[in-house]
Amino acid sequence: MLVIRCQSFDLPSHQNRNQGSENRMSTPSNWPWLQRLGSLRLTTALLLIVFLEVLVGTFVEARLGLWASHTYVFENWWGGLPLVCSIAAVNLIAAFLVRFRWKLRNAGLLTSHIGLVGLLLSGAVGIALTKSSNLDLGAGQTSAESQVGEAWELVVVEHAGGTIQTRGIELESLEPGLALQMGSPQDQLRVESLVGHGICDSLGIAQPLPDPKEASQRIPALSLSAPSPDGSVHRVSLDGNRPMAGLPGGRGLLLRRAVLPLPFSVELISFRREVHPGSTRPKAFESRVRIREAGGAPREALIKMNHPLRLGNFTLYQSSWREGELPGQERTILAVVENPAGKLPYWATFLIAAGLIFHLAPRLRKPSAAGALLLALAAAAPTAHAAPQTRAVPPSLRELPIQLDGRVRTFETFASHTLMQLSGRSKIGTMEACEWLASVVLDPARVDSLAVFLVEHPDARDALGLEGKDRDRYPWSKLGPLGPMLLSFADGSARKPQDARTALDREFLRLSDAWQRYSDLRSALVFLRPESVNGGELLPGTPRNFLELALESPRHGAVLDSLTGIPDSSRTPTEKARLGAYQNTFRKAQAWEAISFPVLPVRDSVHLPWNSPAAELFGHGTADPDLRKALLDWKSLAANWATDPIQAEAAAKSLRAAAVASAGATVDLRAFRAESLHDKIRPFLWALVLLLASGILSFVALRKSKPAMTKVANAITLSAWFLVGIGLVLRMLVSGRPPVTNLYETFLFSAFVVIPVFLAATRLRGWVAGSFLAPLAGATLLVLAKGFASRGDTMPVLVAVLDSNFWLTIHVLTITIGYGGVVAAGIAGHWHLLKLRAGSRDGSEIVRGLAAFGLLFTFVGTLLGGVWADQSWGRFWGWDPKENGALLIVLWVALMFHGRSSGQIGTRGFSVGAVLSISTVLFAWFGVNLMGVGLHSYGFTEGTAWGLASYAVAEAVFLVWVLRTRKLPAPQA
User: Is a pLDDT exceeding 90 seen at residue 723?
Assistant: First the structure.
């Protein structure tokens, strides 16, 4: 790990920097305006203004939608970001002339700022020249023009010389009272009323409606008047309900979205939409199209998520889809982006990256050759689960594949996730999750009385008539009978819009999902139990359970035929009871089709979800030998797992082998083994234990100045870091992608980044506080990650828009490293402020070095995100909230460095800025996810608003307390 010493400008001395002096070239005395224009103080002010405008624009987007944020903030030349960024570009150009020293040692700094100017200019050019539109096509349809989603036009249709002529008039050019000449001076249309989004009333006057969030939902309304041949005035009204109207003289009017002629035509050959099996998450959208360009032969192309089609300055990418006019027909929506300046951001990004590397390379501190102390991983890793088991779970059952939410996992992993979701715990008393789930499936009566279901909201507890304390847990024996009431409450909550749901609504939805899942699991093998036929009462000649009924179907079919052949009046009471039992059995079995326990792979497991044994039995009978064998294995497992472990293991082993063979490529045995090892050694839990131990030990060593104890603490911390790394590698083997695709993983990866950063500072700079802050920061991040682990599968499948492993790796890893660096700077800033209050300057250079490290990776990661966006969606920057959050971090840390270089903030102020940068990171990390808008989502944001608010209050209290003493330590001699 390298510690970076970075200064934004080459200043002569610390004293001059704090006095606000600037290192500038000699300039003519009659150019004071140029010096003020290139002032570093102006740069700092502009950075602050841009930061505030991006922040405000992000909240406007969440509140009013993307259209409002673009119109009033991001693309508004009169006071919006384009104006401020233009001034910033002028400020940089002036700085080149009066402030920067044109020397070889500053070449990297100059190059990066030239690239920054290019990036600002490319943004301005992009706003002016980029045109975005959509192609909405059904199979077999061809179009050579696309619709501009945010623009509308009035089309005048005329019949002349036996042909139809049309003339489009941009709606933005119209205003009430404007006269449109149609031919002769007497022949004109007059605009009576016009609103950007509205409807015409009964009098034909356009009335405004509240603006929707999305620009695509804005539908204008207008009324016009035209003279009639008899001298009267003909009035027409156009809106979303009445987009067409006739005029005197055979003319017509049409209100439609503006169209953009294309230099090529696009024909949709086919559209395919696929979801991950067993889930509703979209896996892939793709359109096969035929392109015809002028003078060229037709050619076919495939457009799919993250794989656009480029035609000169045009980019076509898969945007969305919609249902067609007829059932079963799906239409593709292709976004068309025309950007003549599309290469400019690439050149600017290259210059910035090259300049930063050239500037920072000479300032890197090379680490010494001293080796790091390590503890043996065997001492840190757990050996086995120490919890007593009252009933052993067959090893092969633990490794049985089960499909859920789009991916296949082991029975043991599924058990851990399910129990955590239902109860918020990894065990029920001394019973581990796998034994609990095996009991639910094989012998539900054994665990129905265990308190499993966590009810967090007291109003939900009271509404269900339950008694207990807040955040209490209840068994199935109490919650099970309340299912109809709970599902009714949840149905009412589900009917509300998502942004209108209260905490109580979300609790009902969570509980209903938990109730349904447990109900399915305890009914998964219901066909093996006596209650599956005739309510548990065995009549003479009837089967003991539904499985026997199915296996002996010829005999029972003959009995049923004989019973139905007897007239009702001639049946004996016993025959009537037996016939009623058969009929009741089949009626009950119909409900099994909805049971979800997907452990039986189907033939097309790549695209279709697996099935439940009960549903498969009822749907297909037992004619299939493989199904018959699987059902008999389940019967053997249920009968023997409590009394004969050998027979139970043999049945489980047979089930596992059959599932793996049937599932084919959908079961990755290497991933299975990695996930099983991950669940057994629990690396992140034991890493947390080691970090807590190291934190206590290093704190004692710091207070008592014990170097030997500090070395031991560092070794323990490094061992914990290795465990985190092992856990991340195992997760990559399971998911096949970088471990940064949701908030849980980003916290883990940030811990992996932050720990060695502090240890490196400790080793290379002799900063003893790093020995304490490394385990403190790592443990904090792991605790935060643990809080998100109880909210669902932590390795879910990705939606199609994010399924791009190359850019996911290069962009997300880079920017997450940057986030970790900025968080580390903030933690070091806390320490420095505490030491300043105590009269010491310890840590000031470390704060700046970590901030520079975080700024470098966050900035590069943000630019790489722009490249990803352009490669996948045809635009370099779209002001998505997640993009804005990353930009806010860059702006804030850059503001800190420029403010310090200009003398506007000192050492204390820089550390305060570093402390506040953690809040900026948290906002970018998952605060923007709470807004419910944007393309990016890492999930797991439920309930985090209070956590963010609590952190902000605690941070404010800390800053007030630490800054109330203004006494500074004496300057060093």
Answer: yes
